[in-house]
């Protein structure tokens, strides 16, 4: 019994307890490949955030172990992610006044807050937030993040300094700054690009970023590139876990991180679930959204406790894992163990990494998020989706990443409320076989004489029932021959007991009675009968009829020969 409870809390234990020997060779190869891709990217993302490169390795190790135990996806790899790192960097930068120690401390605090938000949300079973941001909004957001990272790294790639903080300001000064390009730095960047492209076209299965970092770091170490003015990392010293300096910032600053950490939790979880679901679907199994939300929170808390920064689903590393044929989360354990060995025994080599090479690797990684063509393709397919995506992209670029993320979250909420406040509706009819379908322009579905079948495509609640009532009366008044019966598809609209809804229904019954129309609610007969009694509608039983479904309603009406024949003669 205790073992089952432990397995529910740690789903990974169940996978390990049923592990097969024939899986190990696949998991070992996948673990080596994931580590090879994760190492340079983690270091580059640490540089993006303005903290020591070694911290990027911390953000890989303990979170990978944590997700292997608490996650439900067999292929997903957690780790530093371009979007999460960019959000943290944008949130923390205005608070640190160029103090790297404070930057590191606030990064840990924000990571911890993000993890706590996720764990609390999982406790309240808010995994449904995985669908909170629509794909068009997320596309706009990710493209904005990618462009922000690319522009931010151009100074490192070309070797100039003194660029302003804002994205638009950086773009405006870029032409002038290019005139002061440091040629040796640019040459190192070109070498890095050539290595990446050569590996991509000749050996696409090889870890291009890792090979580029190893070769450029070796060149830097052998030829002392620093003496030519090429900046190197130069801040990675010692082995093992670093010690975080004693906090030297006012605790009140942490209030500034509450909303950004909440935004980060939402963005991280949405992208996290998109990656997890896609690979779970591909490999034929299901994942639990609430368990994944908890696993993401625990992974971020583990990262904070190991002095790392926020993590999410690493889509590129997950794709590598799946392509190599990784079977279980042992891949994460193997990859984390390899990174730990590098951390313990090879940190001196990391000192010589050229910053320009890190900038190129970041641009290379961010380019996977960049898909402006996907946004443009929405223009022909769905104008509304295109507008949402474009608005989000412009918001991120114009008002900054943190505010842009806030706009994206707000836009997702407004999109949801608009659908609920003003949903679509249809009039229904029957085909030649007597099947009920929506009446659309050009189709062969015909209305039933004397009967209006109506469907409101949203649950009725206090903030949309007035619109429901308005739409019903508009449809009634528009028809050439007023019906004697209005049949509402109650299975779609009446999902819960709402006092405001039934008060409005009572008013609607009265207005329909004046027009000589009887209201019929079709569907949810048992619940509706109980709710009507509880709300004590003033209308009589003859004014409101509740039946099991639409077909029953039609048969009931047509079974009244006297009324039906009188109506046809009108």
UniProtKB/TrEMBL annotation:
The chain crosses the membrane at residues 28-45, 51-70, 77-97, 103-124, 145-163, 183-202, 257-276, 328-346, 352-376, 388-414. GO terms for biological process: transmembrane transport. This is Sodium-independent anion transporter. Keywords: Membrane, Transmembrane, Transmembrane helix. Residues 441-557 form the STAS domain. It is a multi-pass membrane protein. It comes from the Bacteria. It holds the Pfam family STAS. It is found in: Membrane. One of its GO terms (cellular component) is membrane. SUPFAM superfamilies: SpoIIaa-like. Gene3D superfamilies: STAS domain.
